[in-house]
Amino acid sequence: MLKKKARRMAAAMMAGILTCSLTAVPVKADSISETEQRGKELQKQKEAAENEKSSLASQLNQVISDMQETEKKLTEKQDEIKKAQDELVQAQIQENDQYEAMKLRIKYMYENGNASLLEILFSAKSMGDLLNKAEYVQSISEYDRNMLEKYEKLTKEIEEKEAALEKEEEELKTLQNDLIAKRNSVNQLLAEKEVQISSLEDQIGANAAKLQELIKEAEEAKRRQEEAAAAKRAAEEAARKAALAAQQAASSSGSSSGSGSSSAGNSHVSGNGSLAYPVASPRITSGYGYRTAPTAGATSRHDGIDFGGATGTPIYASAAGTVVTAAYNSARGNYVVINHGNGLQTWYQHCSAVYVSVGQKVSKGQNIAAIGSTGIVTGPHLHYEVHVNGTPVNPLNYL
Ligand SMILES: [Zn+2]
To answer: Which residues constitute the signal peptide according to the record (predicted)?
Structure first.
């Protein structure tokens, strides 16, 4: 038994907490526009990053195309070097052949009696050395000398050419290495840009989700507000109907007026004059004419009569007519003036609610307002005036 009760209480508390948390969520209209603004900024940042990325991509393409160009040049250079090396080998072979042939001829000359030549030949450290020494040897033929010089010169030229080619190859390799470094750095920048774009896309997604959530909350808040307003209207309508029903019941049970009014809505209408009492159970709390002011103690003229009644008590039109004023005034509070024609007007003041508007036609006995305490009053009551040609008169002469 106790357990059950405790559980029910807990459930009620939970419901309370849920209701509170629902109503406590503040939905600011400007947080929606802020989020929209943030979304636009993120989109702009993403576009900028995409532009930088495409610029980097075209830089990378340029670097790769430069690398291909350099690679092609390197291949060509290496072909040239290989060709030069072949030429050099050929030249060295020719040079060597010439040297060998010359040595044979020198040997032949020695065998025919020239000893000093052989000495030179075998003491020479290289062909160049031999040539220097042979310069002083008249016996070496002009032919051999010329041929040796020619081949030596050719070999030297090819060697120089090869060296120049190798130097060019080195330069190309340096260029290629620079290009590789550049490619790597552009690739790195591109990867970073990808990360940045991906992060921006995440932020854009999260922001869009937040925006959707805020819009949903705003719609929810608006819906709750509309529901509350509708409930309030329904409650007011029900209260009015209940008051009217109570009014009808009261007047039908105690009807002694004999005014001949048969309509249910007008059944409260009483009195012998041309005007009906503006309230169902008239209870005059202050009469017309000179009286002692309740606060200041001085006498003042009272332009109407006061009917006592609780706030919300219905006020009825004394006769058919047209509403000429339905307004608020700091002294009169909410008040209504109905023009009945022929210079006759009725005034209803200090109302808690007014149900008619200016220009509206009203019928005798129509519920036009409710007793209240708006304006300068000491408590709720209806201050009722009758005007003839713009001048207040004693209402009792017309009721
Ligand atoms: Zn009064």
So the answer is: 1-24
